[in-house]
Please model this.
Amino acid sequence: MSIKENLNQIKETLPPQVTLVAVSKTKPNEDILEAYETGHRVFGENKVQDMTRKWEQLPKDIEWHMIGHVQRNKVKYMAEYVSMIHGVDSLRLLSEINKQAKKHNRIISCLFQMHIAEEETKFGLDSEELREILASEEFKSLENVEIVGLMGMATFTENHAQIRQEFAHLRSIYDSIKPILPEIQVLSMGMSGDYSIAIEEGSNMVRIGSSIFGARNYH
Model:
């Protein structure tokens, strides 16, 4: 099946309220353009330099989402154009995004990354750390970032009950902070292997790569 067919097939299965981020990391521009020609505009990358190169070379109406772990010293390279940063896991990182967004007179949409998996390798905040950030004066003073929701990744496991439980946990955190941040509307959870469970548990943004573009190209 072609990229175009894969993408259209997945979109047919997604409820209308769910945004699909096509994860194009490691993929060449031709693959992204093939997806673009179907009318798709939202793409996710996990390395700032790759994403910036693609932004420079590809059509300017693409919405680039930074889905990988972000180092603070790399924020300046994407602040001019990035549509959404998914993996904000500290106030220091958020402050840096705010600082760089200000230089470009932009407001950058961000998701707080929550740690819901049992794996230690995953980044993210727990609900107590999230509440501490939300209560801080520094957070309230940031004018060039907008927190639009939460993101989390489930444990990489065949155990669907565990995955469901982790997604349900993230949903409950989302519901609990909605009164504090009424403007949040994005609950980003679910990837190629588990997005259908994520959607059942309330996700409205999924990140899908290999099911669209095929296996990743690691150099």
